Amino acid sequence: MNDKTDFRCGTVAIVGRPNVGKSTLLNALVGQKISITSRKAQTTRHRITGICTTDDAQYIFVDTPGFQTRHATALNRSLNRAVTSTLSSVDVVMFVIEAGNFGPDDEKVLKLLPDNTPVLLIVNKFDRIADRAEILPFLKRVGDLRDFREIVPLSAKRPDDTQRLLGVLRPYLLEGEPIYGEDDLTDRSERFMAAEILREKVFRWTGDELPYTSTVIIDKFEQEGDLRRVFATILVDRDSHKAMIIGNKGAKLKQISTDARLDMAKLFDGPVYLEVWIKVKGGWADNEAGLRAYGYE
Question: Which residue intervals make up region (G4) (predicted)?
Answer without folding.
Answer: 124-127
